[in-house]
Design goal:
The protein has helices at residues 21-28, 32-40, 45-68, 76-91, 97-119, 124-144, 146-149, 174-196, 198-208, 210-215, 220-246, 256-269, 275-294, 299-313, 317-343. The protein is mainly alpha-helical and 344 residues long. The protein has a domain at 44-255.
């Protein structure tokens, strides 16, 4: 008998590796602030709900900007499409939140796919201008259709039914908080799977060198269009949550300012990491809220100075800054360890 043969029963089973606390911390950390707010500051639940919604909106933009390299200044057009879809359903007696959210995702996804067929055939400044044009176009359509959308006065008269038929949307904002948090959690893990899948890796390749991706046979346009459609659907979900939790939709949900703000939020946190949205959005919104209370007339000045500070001292966003600090610390530890061993 060959002595080199080893029975499978004699080979010890490999134990599954248990992730270390350091590896689990990035997965747990984004969900600690919402838990702390609910436990320690329940009066801030309405603001926390809006932060959850904007994080979801920024995550949808991160799929485009951070992974596919598609810079857009018209992302609010997709957000507002979702908001008006859910709002109009609620006005006309179809106020179930989940039905409205799904309809909003479908409407925004369809608008994203149709507009993407035109927008994504361009690059650079032409693409950027077309996204801005999309935002202006949807804004003007909603403004002109005042009999349906409410025009400049906004869409009013929404009647949103209790979530799952049990939990009503009240002034305390508890239902809206958990509703938005659950949607954010689901969207985050969905995007985690997308960016880890072949689609996500091909988007990274297209962002870095689309000519080389074309040379190896990657369907660049189809991949970019798929990413644009997914991002549009998630932006529509964020818009639906905004409409349902506030029971009001205004033209600002389609505005250029919202598109610019969410892009700034993502840049502050760091694009291309998914975690950047969880950092940039709260910092931007809390700073905006604080500065507007301290100096209502000149708070844009403080916000501008804050953003300049991030540009000069945190290039690539806060996530990238944390990564550079950690890498430098690891490098210092690696150089210090041999020196200590030689002294011993």
């Amino acid at each position: 008998m060959d002595k080199s043969f080893v029975s499978p029963a004699a080979v010890p089973a490999r134990r599954p590796r248990i992730p270390s606390p350091a590896a689990l911390l990035p997965e747990i950390l984004p969900w600690l602030p919402p838990a702390a707010i609910y436990a320690l500051a329940p009066e801030m639940l309405p603001l926390a709900t809006q932060i959850n919604i904007m994080i979801l909106f920024a995550l949808s933009l991160d799929l485009l900007v951070g992974y596919a390299g598609i810079v857009t200044l018209g992302h609010a057009a997709l957000f507002g499409t979702g908001a008006y879809t859910a709002g109009l359903l609620a006005v006309h007696g179809m106020g179930d939140p989940l039905t409205g959210a799904l309809a909003a995702m479908a409407a925004s996804g369809l608008v994203g796919l149709l507009s993407g067929l035109v927008i994504l055939r361009t690059k650079g400044l032409a693409l950027l201008m077309l996204t801005i044009a999309l935002g202006f176009l949807t804004h003007e359509i909603a403004n002109r259709a005042g009999g349906v959308t409410g025009g400049a006065d906004g869409l009013q008269g929404m009647v949103v039914e209790p979530l799952l038929g049990i939990f009503p949307f009240d002034f305390r904002g508890e239902t809206g908080f958990f509703y938005s948090l659950a949607a954010l959690f689901a969207a985050y893990w969905f995007l985690r799977m997308v960016v880890a899948a072949p689609l996500g890796w091909s988007l990274r390749g297209i962002r870095e060198n689309d000519a080389r991706m074309t040379a190896i046979g990657s369907p660049i346009f189809a991949r970019r269009l798929a990413a644009y459609g997914l991002a549009a659907a998630l932006a529509g979900l964020a818009g639906a949550l905004q409409a349902q939790t506030t029971q009001f939709v205004s033209l600002s949900s389609l505005g250029f300012e919202l598109s610019g703000n969410v892009l700034v939020m993502l840049i502050v946190g760091g694009a291309g990491h998914l975690y950047g949205a969880f950092i940039g959005v709260p910092i931007f919104m809390l700073a905006q809220d604080t500065l507007s209370k301290l100096d209502p007339a000149n708070w844009y000045l403080g916000q501008g100075l804050l953003l300049m500070g991030f540009v000069f001292f945190a290039r690539g966003g806060i996530v990238a800054l944390i990564g550079r600090i950690a890498a430098r610390r690891n490098a210092n530890n690696a150089t210090a360890t041999p020196a200590q061993g030689s002294n011993a």
